[in-house]
């Protein structure tokens, strides 16, 4: 191929507008952080927020152009745009919910915002990747930034532990992913998803399908780690518990959504022809993930750790949708990830506010009497918890509803049954929080509780509103998801 | 295309090693048509000998170590347990603590060093890429410079500055 | 035409005040609250003038709301002539009451919260009237119920207010249950919930085929309407709902929300036409409610209670109109009633404001000196409700009574008698408040127990500020002249008017009944005040019965509430819940926790162990595939 072909067209840049905007704004923030004084620090948060908004606009522009770009490296379709906008909105909520935290811990610095933007840029790369190399690059951009974010308070021992564990295990798992990519290339001679699919469908590949399955398994290890699916979930509780609360909120939603995006795209597009090979182990992993997440959460006393296990359990539900590998399964997974992002961030935002400086109050029992002292926040947290359980009129209900319907459509009866039983178990530990909030006398933690800052208020109310809107008007999102769920054209 | 029995193997997708191995197999079997049925027709079969060899190699290594452990004579002495330092008598522990600044500078050096490597391939194709290549590299350099500037302003390059005065994150 | 803008403005106002209200200065809260409703009103005007003369319905579909199997429900809004009337009433009267509330609530805590709820109410009410299918109507229906509950219990520190809120909520649930059942039946029978399609297919039905099920649907709809619009036997919540702030009573419990039932019945007229039995039931319930509520209203001493029973009674009139087939007359009365009843409540609020929170008529009197504007405006409202020509109440009530006569003459006579009582109790309240001498303690001590806590230490009664009296004046004009807006004519394309010669005699009789009622009130409370007392003691039996509202609350308590509470305590709580459910749940919970403890062992916190897990998992997965188990 002549070298001149590699020169991108103007449309290619438009297709990559969100990533470009995020990178530029991130770099500018780094620069301003270095030259600017203390006074200007709050402005950096605003700048990051503006950058995210601009990137959302950029995603819409990119969708207007559409198609593949950069020699098929990138694909901009409804699916990519859905996840781009999702992670960008997650980023916005993270920024508004971290303001109070950063002030409180006296750690307001441009690095936080720059790293967040870089991480989101990586997730956008993942969402629009049409190429295993791009998947890997996006994953690394996203992960490396979040490794640092996990240890953002570098004088805090828990932060350090969290970051180190996340980094070591994360790079370990990424190695598996990369090894899988190498296998795929070795077996098919391409890293382009559509091309891999084409080769796999030719009759000549039939003898190699066992090795292809192994390649899929290796890549599955990498993705499963990123989405915290069993048996690669062990890192999640420690990391989410140790990291700063807003960062935990971000890590348990943004990278997870993006990882599921590439997971779906790679496994349904590239590995679609060998679905019978990978379906069983994704099936097993889905069951194991749901069980481990929900049952381990039962005994947790630390709210952050409880939410971490709940995050594992929710990954299990989405894996059910992946196992279905149908268009409605993909749409259900998309909807679920969006609904889940809002309830999880909302719950973590409440924890961020409640835990006070140094995250002193993170025990379940500390919530006692919150319903009496701060009825509004308690009501919001109740909404999030009900949505996490999957009670009707919340986004979580329709998320589960669509996922289990997709599973039944694909004849995954046992998976559905186990999933439903698990959601019943899950109700127990979420309801426990509600009971503590409303039925116990206020304790030391709920006395003298400070006000909710404006930023957190926006995050909490915004998430609650989104949770309710998704629960009342699911088709607002589901229609778009359904239209963009056709990954194989 | 994956056919060892005379299919088209000139697809450019295949990596060289594989192509060569299949070619040789094909050439070999051309002379002995009876062997065709024993020829590999998939990667699994093709690499099976490699697997066998790997197992033998591991077994051999493990066997030798085990044998020396079982059969060899052991003579323990404090002198024998000391770390080997080119025949010199070790002075102090090998686990010496370095100043953290060393790591910082080391990391910064490696980062910029690796960035510089990108300049080489770029220089090779610079003529073909023309202005586009120039602008892209300019952007790249600007990004690297911003990083450098950041590191500089944060005091990472200042060896004499005490640790407490540095403010990467306050 | 962007119909969605109409409800969205108040929703935005509610959101802004709800989220930021605590920080915002009062002026901004006012601006947001009133501004949003005014914008919505202006948008209604613009929409209507654009669609003039609205010969056919304008429908806008935004998106598919729910799509599941063959159930498809769109988020569709619709404006036709009926909606237009409701929209103007809701936004117009709503805007005036919002303005009034600025003055009334000026000294209250939770100011922003109040306006946030009030705007939210406007949003749901507009969704209710704009919705183009039953489900959307139901959303608005439930939404206004929620706001009503929140606002009744606005003074939530007082137990009475909280109880009243709960009562309203629970009684409404009974009605909503009926409404939901009706919706299910409609969906089962017609396969859709869209108004247009339901009514077209209803019209094409042969009477034999569907009359049974349609009668059931209509009766269930009426159960819903009875709950929301406070009809027998579900009216009990409305008088208690007066525990909320007075602007709420005016807006929600007089002018708009309570008329939702009438609107819903009128909207479903195509169904009711097919079910004469249901029509008859509606008419009888309406008439009975009108009569009973009016008798109770005769003797109440709390000024808001008088007007509350009057509202129940007037709502009964509206249903009487609908049941007699004069749907347009019912809506006509909705409109005129919105004017004069809102004015009565706001005037009552002004009086209460003047008397520093006093609501008892026995401690008022002689207020004409202190609050002249309130007196004049209240007089306008009183003559309007009493049916004195040519004021608004006369026209609409006359239409209803004429239809009732066509339907069954005895209904007309009961209606006329009720009209006389209406005139009496309204003027009784009027004279008690404004005539004679001021009977209140001076300076005023603590407020009168429950209700609006409005004690902010006045000496003498005083006139309310302009922000309160200007809405009163506008509403007064509406009450006086509103009757000349010929709603039945406007609605004629949708609800044909009955043909036939006008019977002038009927009109004279009903006017005479009203005038007699006024005269008796004047005689008893102005000319010879002592006579009323002696009359009450002479007829102490009936008086006590009426004063205690026929003991309906007590009867409900004894027959329904108490047995239910007892039953749920002994059977459900002690027996089923504690025994069966808790036992099962705790057992399962214990097993589950045991498993959780095992899982926790895997989580040692050692990073090497974690890495081992990753390797083990990878080996499992790879071996599984590599050994070809998965084909």
Task: Spell out the key features of this protein.
heterotrimer, B: 170 residues, mainly alpha, Methane Monooxygenase Hydroxylase, Chain G, domain 1, disordered N terminus, disordered C terminus, C: 631 residues, 3% strand
* Shape call of chain B: flat
Annotation field: number of helices of chain A: 21
The quaternary state of the protein chains shown equals: heterotrimer
* Mean pLDDT over the residues of chain A: 89
What helical percentage do the residues of chain B reach? 55-70%
Strand-residue proportion of chain A: under 5%
Whole-number total of structural domains of chain A? 1
Order of helices and strands of chain A: HHHEEHHHHHHHHHHHHHHHHHH
Main sheet of chain A?
A: 2 strands, antiparallel
* Average pLDDT taken over every residue of chain B: 74
Low-confidence stretches of chain A: none
Uncertain runs of chain B are: 1-14, 164-170
Rounded to the nearest angstrom, the radius of gyration of chain A is 21 Å
Question: What fraction, in percent, of the residue positions of chain A are helical?
Answer: over 70%
In total, how many domains does the architecture of chain B comprise?
A: 2
Largest sheet of chain B: none
**N→C terminal distance of chain A:** 26 Å
Most extensive interface between two protein chains, with residue counts:
A-C, 47 and 38 residues
Q: Can you walk me through this structure?
A:
The complex is a heterotrimer of chains A (489), B (170) and C (631). Chain A is mostly helical. Chain A contains 21 helices and two strands. A two-stranded antiparallel sheet of chain A has the order 1-2. In chain A, helix 6 packs antiparallel against helix 7 (157-188). The two termini of chain A are 26 Å apart. With 170 residues, chain B is mainly alpha-helical. Helices cover 60% and strands 0% of the residues of chain B. Chain B has five helices and no strands. Chain B is flat, with a radius of gyration of 29 Å. Chain C is mainly α and 631 residues long. Chain C folds into two domains: 5-547, no CATH class; 554-626. In chain C, helix 15 (327-354) packs antiparallel against helix 16. The longest helix of chain C has 50 residues, at 552-601. Residues 443-458 of chain C have low confidence and may be disordered. Chains in contact: A-B, A-C. The interface between A and C is large, with 47 and 38 residues.
